[in-house]
């Protein structure tokens, strides 16, 4: 199997994998970054969202080969101690229920707020409607996005 | 309030080697209220160490319903702990914990007295030690924020300095619980345990488990229910890079189709074992299997529903009050309507998975499950194990909703680990998860009401026909239970009432789905009452209030009475909160529904805007809840929000269909869930009282569905009698 050099959370990682292996499974099974979740494997649910050069992508639908070009950021890479303003906002709003979709929700938010410091309801809907939450935390996610943007603008 | 005393015989205090106080509980006796038998065993539930750190074991599985936070809060409250110094860890399965399953919104109901008893008895011991040390009367001392305090003098001793002696204190036979108006933890919106892990990807779910030497597996199951395998060719799969083995999962080798009630066997299929999940997934794509479907009924949805319709006239009577036939003969008018509800899948966000290390001595299991009891039972029956050879860990589950009440996926994993002689993590694909669910049964429901000259109900007949979830896989004979319970609403409210059930055999695997029977039956019942109101030109809430009559205790069945005063209160409040009596712009409408479930009373008003293209836009929901004491308002609101949205998803889109005996849906593109842009504002009010807390995970779901369809009627004049809503509009 070929070996690939990935740039993940500002660290260079060498991995050996089949070229068509989705980044998701390299993260989870090889690099043990299990914060990125498997939900559908078809780009339909957003549970596997990570950032590729700052843009939210579905890691189940990006091959390891394509992931070599550019920087990958996963949920594990946004802070050392769960203290990024987005994470703080999430905790303040007590957002998660089962929590399984939340890494994906947070990564979509991370990308949104890096481009738009003051998103409207519309903007938030557009950025996050690709992330399914089976438990129905959408209302709190939306409030947490706004709270996070306030925190980051301070 | 009843049950204000916590009894000693459930609790035992001991000191650990390090001087910590260990609080053991005897669970069965506490739940049943009986004195424990001799030689019973106390299981540690809480430890308080010499630093005053309180460590609590959460015994029920955490599936997103918040028990890992709410149950410890109850204990910490009675104890007078400092919540910041409370640590909660997930307990493994232990049959002595008793009632360790999660479901039916029961966790708080079942554990309310137990948690309070443990807290109150320990508080007594700590106060007794403090009273000796301070030379002050115990009656003047209270426990607060992790210390015993003498309020008059301001003297206090932290718990950590009291624990060593506390283990020696004889406990009182009975102790009074704190009055609810003195609560400082219960009733506070406390952020849940494990939040930091969930927002940083550090929470370990079942699917994240990794064991030394572990291999990865996935399955390809026969898509046709109750089918088997004729032959399979694994040459291509086995030749693939990373694939280690291909194994057949044949349930005939393990005692046939069924293990026991609520402990289902697994579906026949083929498993691929590999050195990574992806290699297993890819290998499974390459399997060539010839399925044997000779025993299958090869059902189609239309044909199943035809049989349900036909069965409406071939029923058994499940409840009979007064004389419905006579009421019908004497009625001024009658109303008769037929409603259809579809089959539904659970689609938990985390697909089914399980890790098993089947060693020579011990079978160790990491299972995201709601039902460790059934898992243990399944392993015992499949492999002839003794309970002490089974160790079950309960990682957090990424949603459950009733799906993880069944343990088929865990049986798969156990067989594979045993055959491989290695730890195996089995992950089902989303497609397998959707196609091999234990579906919420669809049903056809016919309601007939007899009305007097004022349009009020004198007789009520509810006939429900379907395949019951209480049978298993089309087994012959009468089901263990029906889908219409004898306490179904409006039993007790109408003098001439008849419930009938028509049972149809089907191969479709059926199971519990959040809010079970009420989730399916509230839609016909509450739509029907709405139809009656319109037939009589009456406001739906006015009509409903007249229908349920004055505040009183309504006898329903046996000891069970329905407190109509609490019901009326939530209805009147929701009417006010939703501005029910004001007018709305053209195209908008409000719908109402109310229901009692798991001891809680719920009333909901949904406001919709139906756009020209028939797109239903849910604008807002007003909900009033009386669930007794609200243990954790933040978690409680989350449950209400989640249950209502789940009701809306089901109402708008939810439908599983079958073709030639197999499920047609496979993933989120054809089994749709609501998205953020479709989510309405939800305004929740909890009634304040000091009645014992009741269930909340399910009760808000059933009324959400008819409140929505009634709102669509108010907005458009279109009556929805068949779910999902989308099937009524050609969009
Ligand atoms: S797992 Fe990638 S979008 Fe669902
Ligand atoms: S919190 Fe459970 S899926 Fe979103």
Overview of this structure, please?
The complex is a heterodimer of chains A (154) and B (731). Chain A is built from six helices and five strands, in the order ββαββαβαααα. Chain A is an alpha+beta fold and 154 residues long. Chain A has a five-stranded mixed β-sheet with strand order 2-1-5-3-4, sandwiched between helices. With 731 residues, chain B is an alpha+beta fold. Helix content of chain B is 27%, strand content 25%. In chain B, α2 runs parallel beside α3 (107-134) and α13 crosses α14 (540-548). Chains A and B meet through α1, α3, α4, α5 and α6 of A and α5, α7 and α16 of B. The structure holds FE2/S2 (inorganic) cluster (2 copies). One FE2/S2 (inorganic) cluster sits between chains A (96-102, 133-135, 137) and B (64, 349, 399).
Topology of this protein?
The complex is a heterodimer of chains A (154) and B (731).
Chain A (H helix, E strand, L loop, with lengths): L2 E6 L2 E6 L6 H8 L18 E4 L2 E4 L5 H4 L3 E3 L11 H8 L9 H14 L5 H8 L9 H16 L1
Helix pairs in contact in A: 3-6, 4-5
Chain B lengths: L4 E3 L3 E5 L5 E5 L1 H6 L10 E6 L5 E5 L8 H13 L6 E5 L16 H28 L6 E4 L2 E4 L4 E4 L4 H4 L7 E3 L18 H4 L16 E7 L6 E6 L1 H5 L3 E7 L19 E6 L2 H9 L2 E5 L8 H11 L4 E6 L2 H7 L2 E9 L11 E6 L4 E4 L5 H12 L6 E4 L14 H13 L3 E4 L2 H6 L7 E9 L5 E10 L29 E8 L12 H20 L4 H9 L4 E5 L2 E4 H14 L10 E10 L2 E11 L5 E11 L6 H20 L5 E2 L2 E2 L17 E6 L14 H16 L15
Parallel strand pairs in B: 5-6, 11-21, 19-20, 23-24, 29-32
Antiparallel strand pairs in B: 1-10, 2-3, 3-4, 4-5, 7-8, 8-9, 11-14, 12-15, 13-14, 16-24, 17-22, 18-19, 18-21, 22-23, 25-26, 27-28, 28-29, 30-31
Bound molecules: FE2/S2 (inorganic) cluster (FES) (2 copies).
Features:
heterodimer; A: 154 residues; alpha+beta; Ubiquitin-like (UB roll); DNA polymerase, domain 1; 2 domains; 6 helices; 5 strands; globular; B: 731 residues; Aldehyde Oxidoreductase, domain 4; 7-stranded mixed β-sheet; 5-stranded mixed β-sheet; 17 helices; 27% helix; binds FE2/S2 (inorganic) cluster
């Amino acid at each position: 199997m070929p070996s690939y050099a990935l740039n993940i959370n500002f660290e260079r990682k060498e991995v050996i994998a089949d070229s068509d292996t989705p980044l998701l499974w390299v993260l989870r099974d090889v690099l043990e970054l299990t914060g990125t979740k498997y939900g559908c494997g078809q780009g339909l649910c957003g549970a596997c969202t990570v950032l590729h050069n700052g843009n939210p992508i579905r890691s189940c639908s990006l091959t390891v080969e394509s992931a070599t070009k550019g920087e990958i950021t996963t949920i594990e890479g946004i802070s050392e101690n769960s203290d990024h303003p987005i994470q703080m906002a999430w905790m303040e709003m007590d957002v998660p229920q089962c929590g399984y979709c939340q890494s994906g929700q947070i990564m979509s938010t991370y990308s949104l707020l890096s481009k738009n410091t003051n998103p409207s309801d519309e903007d938030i809907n557009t950025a996050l409607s690709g992330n399914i939450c089976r438990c129905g935390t959408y209302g709190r996610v939306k409030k947490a996005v706004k709270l996070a943007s306030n925190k980051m603008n301070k | 309030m009843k049950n204000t005393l916590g009894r000693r015989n459930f609790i035992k205090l001991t000191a650990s080697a390090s001087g910590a106080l260990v609080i053991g509980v005897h669970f069965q006796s506490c739940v049943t209220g009986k004195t424990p038998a001799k030689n019973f065993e106390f299981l540690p539930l809480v430890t308080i160490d010499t630093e005053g750190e309180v460590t609590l074991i959460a015994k029920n599985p955490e599936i997103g319903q918040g028990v890992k936070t709410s149950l410890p809060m109850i204990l910490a409250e009675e104890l007078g702990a400092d919540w910041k110094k409370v640590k909660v860890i997930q307990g493994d399965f232990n049959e002595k914990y008793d009632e360790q399953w999660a479901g039916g919104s029961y966790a708080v109901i079942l554990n309310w007295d137990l948690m309070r008893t443990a807290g109150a008895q320990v508080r007594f011991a700590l106060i007794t030690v403090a009273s000796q040390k301070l030379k002050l009367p115990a009656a003047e001392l209270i426990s607060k924020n992790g210390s015993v305090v003498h309020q008059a003098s301001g003297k206090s001793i932290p718990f950590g300095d009291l624990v060593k002696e506390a283990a020696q204190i004889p406990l009182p036979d009975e102790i009074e619980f704190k009055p609810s108006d003195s609560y400082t933890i219960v009733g506070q919106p406390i952020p849940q345990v494990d939040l930091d892990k969930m927002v940083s990807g550090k929470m370990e779910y079942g699917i994240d488990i990794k064991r030394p030497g572990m291999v990865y597996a996935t399955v390809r199951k026969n898509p046709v229910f109750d089918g088997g395998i004729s032959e399979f060719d694994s040459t291509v799969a086995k030749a693939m890079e990373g694939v280690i083995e291909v194994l057949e999962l044949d349930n005939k080798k393990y005692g046939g189709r069924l293990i026991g009630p609520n402990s289902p066997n697994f579906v026949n299929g083929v498993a691929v074992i590999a050195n990574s999940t992806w290699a297993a997934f890819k290998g499974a794509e390459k399997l060539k299997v010839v399925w044997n479907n000779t025993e299958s009924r090869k059902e189609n949805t239309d044909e199943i529903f035809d049989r349900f319709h036909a069965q409406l006239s071939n029923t058994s009577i499940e409840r009979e009050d007064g004389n419905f036939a006579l009421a019908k003969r004497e009625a001024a008018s009658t109303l008769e309507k037929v409603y259809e509800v579809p089959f539904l899948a659970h689609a938990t966000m985390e697909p089914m998975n399980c890790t098993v290390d089947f060693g020579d001595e011990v079978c160790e299991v990491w299972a995201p499950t709601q039902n460790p009891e059934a898992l243990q039972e399944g392993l015992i029956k499949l492999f002839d194990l003794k309970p002490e050879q089974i160790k079950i860990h309960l990682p957090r589950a990424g949603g459950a909703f009733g799906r993880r009440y069944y343990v088929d996926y865990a049986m798969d994993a156990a067989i594979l680990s045993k055959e491989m002689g290695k730890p195996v993590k089995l992950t089902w694909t989303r497609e397998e998860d959707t196609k091999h669910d234990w579906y919420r049964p669809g049903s056809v429901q016919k309601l007939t009401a007899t009305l007097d000259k004022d349009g009020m109900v004198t007789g009520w007949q509810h006939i429900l026909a379907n395949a019951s979830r209480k049978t298993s896989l089309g087994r012959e004979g009468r089901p263990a239970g029906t889908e219409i319970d004898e306490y179904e609403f409006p039993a007790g409210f109408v003098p001439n009432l008849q419930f009938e059930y028509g049972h149809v055999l089907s191969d479709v695997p059926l199971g519990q789905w959040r809010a079970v029977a009420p989730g399916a039956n509230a839609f016909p019942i509450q739509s029907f009452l709405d139809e009656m109101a319109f037939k009589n030109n009456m406001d739906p809430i006015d009509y409903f209030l007249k229908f349920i009559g004055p505040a009183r205790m309504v006898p329903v069945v046996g000891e069970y009475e329905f407190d109509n005063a609490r019901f009326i209160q939530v209805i009147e409040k929701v009417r006010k909160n939703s501005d029910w009596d004001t007018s709305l712009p053209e195209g908008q409408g409000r719908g109402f529904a109310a229901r009692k479930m798991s001891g809680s009373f719920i009333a909901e008003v949904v406001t919709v805007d139906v756009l020209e293209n028939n797109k239903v836009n849910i604008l807002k929901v007003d909900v009033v809840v009386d669930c007794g004491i609200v243990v954790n308002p933040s978690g409680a609101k989350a449950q209400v929000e989640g249950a209502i949205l789940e009701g809306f998803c089901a109402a708008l889109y939810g439908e599983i269909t079958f073709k030639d005996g197999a499920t047609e849906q496979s993933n989120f593109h054809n089994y749709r869930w609501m998205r953020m842009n479709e989510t309405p504002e939800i305004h929740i009010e909890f009634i304040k009282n000091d009645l014992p807390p009741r269930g909340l995970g399910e009760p808000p779901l059933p009324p959400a569905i008819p409140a929505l369809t009634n709102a669509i009627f108010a907005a458009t004049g279109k009556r929805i009698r068949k779910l999902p809503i989308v099937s009524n509009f050609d969009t």
